[in-house]
Amino acid sequence: MTDDGWRERLRAWLTENEPPAEAHTDVAAARDYQVRLYEAGYAGLTWPAEWGGQGLGAAESVAFAEESASYDMPGRPFLIGMGMVGPTIVDLGSDEQRRRYLTPLLRGEEIWCQLFSEPGAGSDVAGLSTRAVRDGDGWRLTGQKVWTSNAQWADHAAVLARTSPDKPKHAGLTMFVLDMDQPGVTVRPLVDMTGNAPFNEVFLDDAWVPGDEVLGEVDGGWHAARTMLGHERVSISGLRQRRGRGVTSAALTETARRYGTADDPAVRDELAALYASERALELYNVLLNQETAAGSPPGARGSVGKLAGALLAYRGVHAAGVVAGAGALVHEEDDVDGGGLELGMTSAPASSIAGGTNEIQRNIIAERVLGLPREPTVEARRAARSDR
Ligand SMILES: Cc1cc2nc3c(=O)[nH]c(=O)nc-3n(C[C@H](O)[C@H](O)[C@H](O)COP(=O)(O)OP(=O)(O)OC[C@H]3O[C@@H](n4cnc5c(N)ncnc54)[C@H](O)[C@@H]3O)c2cc1C
């Protein structure tokens, strides 16, 4: 339960402070809206008050998610910072890092990206080859990252690099905080099938990191990465309602009315089943957020929500086909609703890859939630073959 009147005050604030449409296309407008949220006390709800958060509990976090669900909140530029890097800094950062980074992040003044994936290391991110070499009282980083969301706006990155190439791959990594605005960092956009460029390639060429900008321990990067990936799965799991846009049950119900298919029993069945799956995931996310806010993060169980969100995206795509037929993909250029539907359809596949693929989530659930035997590593398979 929230304290008396908290939800009502939030509801009134949202009514008076509806997010402006341009906050979805203009990052400066998104930053302005984020400052307003922060100053009204609605950013970092469950983060500790001493580091700029509100120090509230899961009840307020759930109330915020419910009350803001009917608004198109412009959170995309802040997704990585708020959902992944910020909580990791709360968990593993030094007090100096918490003081320096968390409040500007919550105020939308500084945007973050996550530099993990590389051309040769995605699912097996511990196999990455970006090198960090000591240089005086800091580090020089060289390598290539790829699929980096929000790097086009980012002020800082959480970057994973190899510090000890002689150690086993998981034991030789370190996570750093990198200033993106320096000569050694080059960002190039990558266009996906929606026609937008939500992610980038990032080239590091002797990029500089001061010695006190290690996040966690030197050679403790795998622990830091797992901490961040845990937060990532929970935050992505809660994204579906916003990301699914054109292919949610609510949007598709409107589409069915427009197409005159709302009375078709097959359409009604499809929409009801989609709604039920959305509601089940929403409630599961409430549970994950309650556990996190209570100081007991769900760990590998976050993968259940992440996987369910990706499967739900496909279910939405299927429902769009039933509701609108070919109209789900083909529309007149000036048809705004048709455009929303197309965006929902073409962006759905990304949800089965971003934040770890469906296959990887299934492996995690099998091994770490259900306790099934571990999948043999490539090295173990090779050894077994050579024994034959
Ligand atoms: C929209 C989007 C945003 C992203 N944003 C970021 C970001 O901000 N920062 C970042 O660092 N990365 C980001 N990524 C990258 C993402 O994390 C990787 O794409 C993902 O981890 C998969 O890696 P990969 O593309 O190299 O595929 P691979 O790892 O090469 O996988 C290829 C295929 O093999 C399967 N596979 C691999 N290993 C196994 C296994 N052990 N068992 C079963 N199947 C397996 C995979 O499931 C997949 O189907 C983003 C990706 C997308 C789509």
Structure description:
- Helix 1 packs parallel to helix 3, helix 4 (79-92) runs antiparallel to helix 5 and helix 8 (249-259) runs parallel beside helix 10 (302-324).
- Strand 2 and strand 3 form a beta hairpin.
- Helix content is 46%, strand content 13%.
- The mean pLDDT is 91.
- It is globular and about 70 Å long.
- The N and C termini lie far apart (62 Å).
- It is of the alpha+beta class and 388 residues long.
- It contains 13 helices and 7 strands.
- The structure holds flavin-adenine dinucleotide.
- Flavin-adenine dinucleotide binds next to strand 1 and helix 12.
- Flavin-adenine dinucleotide is lined by residues 113-114, 116-117, 122-123, 147-149, 198-199, 350, 353-354, 356-357, 359-360, 363.
Architecture blueprint of SSEs:
Blueprint: H1 6-16, H2 27-39, H3 58-68, H4 79-92, H5 95-106, E1 112-115, E2 131-135, E3 138-145, E4 156-162, E5 173-179, E6 185-190, E7 199-210, H6 221-237, H7 240-243, H8 249-259, H9 265-293, H10 302-324, H11 336-347, H12 358-369, H13 378-387
Parallel strand pairs: 1-4
Antiparallel strand pairs: 2-3, 3-7, 4-5, 6-7
Bound molecules: flavin-adenine dinucleotide.
Flavin-adenine dinucleotide (FAD) binds next to β1 and α12.
In short:
The chain has 388 residues and is α+β, with helices and mostly antiparallel strands. Helices cover 46% and strands 13% of the residues.
